[in-house]
C-alpha cells in the first residue's frame, strides 16, 4: 500500500511542566535540573528534525500532541510517534490493525551520562524498545518504508472480556488485575482453558496475592521481566502470566508463572470487594467487583509496528 498521508503523534514538547512554577524551579539539585532541561531540549529538537524531514517527502502529514488524541485514528496510511515507548503505547489504543505505526525514540538513554551521574540519580532516558528509529536514522528508515523496502511486524495484543462483554481497549504490553489499594490482598482464581472449552489443569488455581499480570511478547521486556519473568520472541502470540507475590501458594506454586497459547484463554474469577484492570500501565482502567469474571486471550487485532530488527534484516539483503 502506498503511504501518502501520515499522522505525526508527539509527546508533549514540555514534558516536565513542574520545572518552573511562578518563575521558580521546583527542582533544587542543579544536576537534576540540567538533566531535565536537556531532556526537554533534545525532545524538542527531535520533533523539529522529524518535521523538517517530512517536509521534504512526497507525503501529506499533520502533527498532533498525544494529549489531544481522543478518537480512533482513521483516514491515514501510517502513524509516526515521536517520544518513546509510552507515546507508542498511547497511540496503540487508538489504532486498529489497518494502520501501521513507526516509533521514533526522541531522547535515547546515553550510557556515559547514566554512568557519570549514577551516584546522584538515575539518568536513564528513553529505552525505546518498540521504536525503530532515532534522529540518527529517521530519514533512512522513513525512506525504506515509503519505497516499500520494509513491512511492519504483526505484534500481538491482549483481548479482554468482562462478564462476557468485550472491552474496547487492547493491551500492547500487559494487563494487571489487582486491588486498587496496592497494600491490599487480591483474592481470585484462574484456570487456563482451550478455546473449545477444555481446561489445561484439572483444578482451578486459587490465589491470594497482590494481583495478576499478563503480558504479550512486546511487554515481556517491561514489568514482567522486572518481576522475574522471561523475555519472549517479539512476534510470539503466546501470553505470559505471573501471580504477584502469592501468599502461601503451597502445591500450586509451580502454576503461578507460565504462559498459554493462542488457542487457549485464561478465565479469572474475582473474589475481592474491589479490583481494577489496568491496561498498559495507567493508560486505561476498568473497575471489577466481587463475582466478576475476566477472560484474557490473544484474540485482539494485532498492531502493525515497524520494528528495528525487521528493518535491519531487510537492509542486510541490499
UniProtKB/TrEMBL annotation:
It comes from the Eukaryota. The keyword S-adenosyl-L-methionine does not apply. It holds the Pfam family NAD_kinase. InterPro entries: ATP-NAD_kinase_N, ATP-NAD_kinase_PpnK-typ_C, NAD/diacylglycerol_kinase_sf, NADK. Keywords: Kinase, NAD, NADP, Transferase. GO terms for molecular function: kinase activity. Belongs to the NAD kinase family. This is NADH kinase. The gene is LOC104714126.
Amino acid at each position: 500500500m502506498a503511504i501518502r498521508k501520515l499522522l505525526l503523534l508527539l509527546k508533549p514538547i514540555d514534558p516536565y511542566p513542574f520545572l518552573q512554577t511562578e518563575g521558580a524551579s521546583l527542582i533544587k539539585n542543579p544536576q537534576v535540573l540540567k538533566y531535565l532541561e536537556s531532556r526537554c531540549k533534545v525532545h524538542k529538537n527531535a520533533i523539529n528534525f522529524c518535521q523538517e524531514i517530512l517536509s521534504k517527502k512526497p507525503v501529506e502529514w499533520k502533527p498532533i500532541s498525544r494529549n489531544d488524541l481522543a478518537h480512533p485514528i482513521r483516514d491515514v496510511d501510517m502513524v509516526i510517534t515521536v517520544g518513546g515507548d509510552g507515546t507508542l503505547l498511547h497511540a496503540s489504543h487508538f489504532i486498529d490493525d489497518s494502520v501501521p505505526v513507526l516509533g521514533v525514540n526522541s531522547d535515547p538513554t546515553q550510557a556515559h551520562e547514566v554512568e557519570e551521574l549514577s551516584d546522584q540519580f538515575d539518568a536513564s532516558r528513553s529505552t525505546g524498545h518498540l521504536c525503530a528509529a532515532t534522529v540518527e536514522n529517521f530519514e533512512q528508515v522513513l525512506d525504506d518504508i515509503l519505497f516499500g523496502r520494509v513491512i511492519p511486524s504483526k505484534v500481538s495484543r491482549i483481548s479482554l472480556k468482562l462478564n462476557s462483554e468485550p472491552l474496547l481497549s487492547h493491551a500492547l504490553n500487559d494487563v494487571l488485575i489487582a486491588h486498587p489499594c496496592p497494600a491490599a490482598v487480591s483474592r481470585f482464581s484462574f484456570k487456563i482453558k482451550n478455546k473449545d472449552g477444555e481446561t489445561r489443569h484439572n483444578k482451578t488455581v486459587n490465589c491470594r496475592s497482590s494481583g495478576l499480570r499478563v503480558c504479550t511478547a512486546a511487554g515481556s521486556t517491561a514489568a514482567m521481566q522486572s518481576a522475574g519473568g522471561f523475555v519472549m520472541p517479539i512476534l510470539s502470540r503466546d501470553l505470559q502470566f505471573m501471580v504477584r507475590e502469592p501468599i502461601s501458594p503451597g502445591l500450586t506454586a509451580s502454576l503461578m508463572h507460565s504462559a498459554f497459547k493462542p488457542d487457549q484463554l485464561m478465565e479469572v474469577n474475582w473474589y475481592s470487594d474491589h479490583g481494577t484492570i489496568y491496561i498498559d500501565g495507567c493508560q486505561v482502567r476498568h473497575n471489577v467487583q466481587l463475582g466478576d469474571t475476566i477472560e484474557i486471550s490473544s484474540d485482539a487485532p494485532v498492531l502493525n509496528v515497524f520494528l528495528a530488527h525487521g528493518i535491519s534484516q531487510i537492509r542486510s539483503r541490499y
